[in-house]
Design a protein that fits this description.
10 helices, globular, five-stranded mixed beta sheet, homodimer, alpha/beta, 12 strands, about 35% helix
Chain lengths: ~325, ~325
């Protein structure tokens, strides 16, 4: 094939999503390989290198036409691309750009944290198009974030930039977060957090509700019931919205972005999420930050892959 | 005089502090002029221009040897130096670099928000030396902030970068902040905020205390009493420390700086301030951010002038 190409790689804890892109950033082909985390994840980078070599061969690409490889990882990445303890992969400190580039004859490699990659992807091709400064909020199993200021990702001094899931939002919480603290944002606003606050409300409420406090209770069933007008589900959604809206008002008073883009599994519930969050965000936000746009992400699971490849395009 | 020079100007609501610096950033002379805010502050920039022209004449400086003029203002400054509604000066939108440069034969002028200037000054010559990313917290009549990430000030999309005084920290507050919201950080942690929470505690307490709830109650008398072991004063200091420590843990989970430098009038109380804030910061901070250094500012009232001149050196 003629022209210039790049690879975007979204390295997750169970699957590696890979994409071949042209130089305009259009995806030409997507595929997946499993993430082998056994033995401290020693096979992960060789597996990726092999998969890319196979694709280069299959497509008859000239390695000199490959502009680079962008890869995101589910853990803290320091400036320079060194991964600093990526628990989900079994990794300690890994110089991903150096190692992967070495396995691929020196092709340029850039590494980025997965939440930051999603932010870059959404800014480039998704809900954040047109904004130079934005915060990406990912509401999944946990709550992740990616902060872009004037086009640049804020990695943070310890790779903890936009670790918004662990903002302390409730001094009275008694249950412990996965991080060891109590009262973190993700204890209330992640998919699991929403179920947790839902269960508490269901235990106490005397109101009738279509929600059932069993194994099937999920963020989706709660948002679906709220859309149908269920009072208890609506109360849970309000609690979620108030906590997240206030947290976002704290963030914008410090970083003052143009937009907040909300993605992750929870955001699939749609406008109900941005509506309730905006309703609590605006009265809590500093007046100059009230015009900050709050909108839904658009790229779904591909955001990370797009953001990763953007690093080398 | 031979060599290259620059002026640093700290434009406050009542006084303009001006300094002549050599190219190494050493201050050669400091002086002040009054800030004339009448008639929408129309005299402010001409007064500054005249003062600088007089100094240039007095010192027999060659205008071509003047590297530039850095000026800080007590209001939001957009990227490019345009001041966006500076209430304390009576100003609407003012292009300070263009106007002041025009009055001074084209000498380069850079404008910066005063809290951001203090941050730059402390990073350059004060408590923030050696840190590429830092947060400056100014505890004065209000609570101000300046955020530097990788050496660059975060002005924010609406000039509201690091407006940390208006982070919403208490959803249960009944009194209104100067900004119109309720429960802002500065209602508890500014000099006036500390007195406010002090008065509330003095009204309710049954403990004996050397503090008297009269006109003379101030942040200083409270910290002084706490240092002498007064139980009620210590409780007030703990309340202050808990609120500020938790707010800082929220900020570092988003911006992950290397250091937090605390300045402003309240910081003159000394180590008692950083000690109590650190004690509440650490358990609330995300684990990767717990090593963030919390220390006192060193430049006092000169921080803004140093930061301003740094813009042109």
């Amino acid at each position: 094939m003629a022209g210039k190409y790049a690879f975007g790689i979204d390295l997750g804890g169970t699957t590696v999503k890979e994409g071949l892109f042209n130089e305009k950033g259009e995806v030409l082909e997507k595929w997946e390989i499993p993430t082998r985390t056994e033995e401290n994840g020693k096979n992960i980078l060789p597996d990726i290198a092999k998969s890319l070599k196979d694709k280069i061969k299959e497509k008859k690409l000239d390695p000199s036409d490959i502009l680079g490889i962008g890869i995101d990882v589910p853990g803290p990445v320091l400036d320079g691309g060194i991964v600093n303890n990526c628990v989900n992969l079994g990794w300690g400190v890994v110089n991903v750009p150096q190692e992967l580039s070495g396995m691929l004859g020196g092709i340029k490699v850039e590494a980025v944290n997965d939440a930051n990659a999603a932010a870059l992807g959404e800014q480039w091709k998704g809900g954040g198009r047109g904004f130079k400064s934005m915060l990406m909020v990912t509401l999944g199993t946990g709550v992740g974030g990616g902060l872009i200021i004037n086009g640049k990702i804020v990695n943070g001094s310890h790779g903890a930039g936009a670790e918004i899931g662990h903002m302390p939002v409730n001094p009275h919480e008694e249950e412990t977060c996965g991080c060891g603290k109590k009262g973190c944002l993700e204890q209330y606003c992640s998919a699991t957090g929403i179920v947790r606050i839902g269960r508490k409300r269901l235990e106490k409420t005397k109101k009738s509700t279509i929600l059932v406090n069993n194994e099937e209770l999920s963020a989706k069933t709660i948002f679906d019931a709220a859309k149908e007008g269920d009072e208890v589900a609506k109360e849970i959604v309000e609690e979620f919205g108030e906590i997240l809206g206030r947290a976002l008002a704290n963030i914008t008073a410090v970083t003052d972005p143009e937009a907040i883009v909300i993605g992750g599994g929870v955001s699939k519930a749609g406008d109900i999420v941005t509506d309730v969050v905006s309703r609590y965000y605006k009265p809590n936000a500093f007046h100059a930050c009230r015009t900050c746009v709050i909108k839904l992400a658009e790229l779904g699971n591909d955001a990370g892959m797009y953001g990763a490849v953007k690093m080398v395009l």
